[in-house]
Write a structure and sequence with these properties.
single chain; 378 residues; alpha+beta; Glucose Permease (Domain IIA); 2 domains; nine-stranded antiparallel beta sheet; 60% helix; elongated
């Protein structure tokens, strides 16, 4: 009887250790899929906004240039949306495969536990019929031995009940996991159909953009080609900046939702050039200040002796172009509203001299242009 008790106790220990490991594995979940869903939804909202703007331009009979520009933005957003959705699909597949393996492991563990429990019940019944438990207890050599044997009997009963509770819990978890896996598979099917639609829409976007482009005048075409060239240069520069900002912690609290910042030039007049670029007109000698705490990662001097200063705020980079009298160096950490130079002097195409600078913000983690004026809204 003593050897039998030890054998059953050992089996219970093995079962409970395996169950604990299984529980830990089941709890190990990642939030990556949830985060990716948020990114996909954001791209989807941006895409829907742009699609409405394209439709409005058609209704209002906007210029071909405006339509091509907006269609290009729509295609870029759709391409990004497809890429993010494919990433979500990949993460869901990994999660579904991992869940599938966990289900197999849990089902195997559950079956094993049921077998152990059945054997434990059979042993308990045989002991009851043959009164082996009573014999085991009354064959004690003394009171201390009897107490120890009573504890052993009670412990086996408690372990048997704990295993029964474990089996119920595992059965419920297994049912929940199978339901969750079915949901994941359904979601993957939905994503696959959605991607097929988006690829078709992207193809139509390209065809429409091509037709609209053919409506442009020669002057408009050249302007768009130059814009495309500038965008390619910007994309290349963004890749380089991504390397420079990697791991940067200075000013990392800056993001696309940051508001109520001061203009780089106090009292400057703004003229929008592109979504992520603005021209700021001031007076000779005006100070140019950093909009936010950050780290100076690059300074470039052009052939007119004016400088461009780039300051990284986490993964964002503010770019100050057409500056003179630079007061910072690469590697410097600047504070918010700290002077980094003075406004440059230039002559426009009419020969008029003025003091101005150009300002833009680049998000090195995204290809979606940021509206620079948003961060100055009070």
């Amino acid at each position: 009887m003593g050897r039998l008790l030890k054998h059953i106790l050992l089996l219970f220990v093995v079962v409970l250790m395996a169950a604990t490991t299984d529980a830990l594995l089941a709890q190990k979940k990642t939030t990556t899929v949830a985060e990716q869903k948020k990114r996909v939804e954001q791209y989807k909202r941006d895409l829907e906004r742009t699609k409405k703007e394209v439709q409005n331009l058609k209704k209002e009979k906007g210029s071909a240039t405006e339509r091509v520009d907006k269609l290009t933005e729509q295609m870029n957003l759709r391409t990004s949306y497809i890429a993010e959705t494919e990433r979500k699909q990949e993460l869901l597949k990994v999660e579904a495969d991992a869940l599938d393996k966990t289900i197999d492991s849990l089902a195997e563990q559950l079956e094993y536990n049921k077998q152990i429990y059945a054997e434990a019940v059979r042993v308990a019944y045989r002991n009851y019929r043959t009164q082996r438990t009573t014999t085991y207890l009354f064959s004690s050599t003394d009171l201390s031995d009897a107490t120890r044997r009573m504890v052993n009997i009670r412990h086996v009963a408690e372990q048997r009940q704990e295993l029964a509770d474990r089996i119920v819990d595992q059965t419920l978890r297994l049912k929940g996991m199978r339901t969750e896996l079915t949901s994941r598979r359904t979601e993957l099917d939905s994503i696959e159909r959605s991607l097929e639609r988006e690829h078709s829409e992207l193809k139509r976007d390209r065809e429409e953009a091509k037709r609209t482009f053919e409506e442009l005048s020669e002057k408009e075409r050249k302007a768009l080609e130059e814009q495309k060239r500038q965008q390619q240069l910007l994309d290349k520069a963004t890749k380089e900046l991504r390397k420079l900002t990697e791991g940067n912690k200075v000013g990392k609290t800056f993001n696309k939702s940051t508001k109520a910042l001061n203009l780089p030039v106090k009292g400057g007049k703004t003229e929008k050039m592109q979504t992520n670029m603005v021209k700021i007109i001031g007076a000779k000698g005006d100070a140019v200040n950093s909009i936010y705490e950050g780290k100076v990662i690059r300074i470039v001097v052009d052939n007119t002796n004016h400088s461009t200063v780039m300051i990284a705020h986490g993964s964002y980079v503010s770019v100050y172009t057409h500056l003179s009298q630079i007061r910072v160096a690469v590697g410097d950490v600047v504070k918010r509203n700290e002077q980094i130079g003075t406004i440059g002097i230039g002559v426009d195409h009419k020969g008029v001299m003025s003091a101005y600078m150009q300002f833009m913000i680049i998000n090195t983690e995204s290809n979606v242009p940021m509206n620079v004026m948003d961060c100055f809204k009070k």
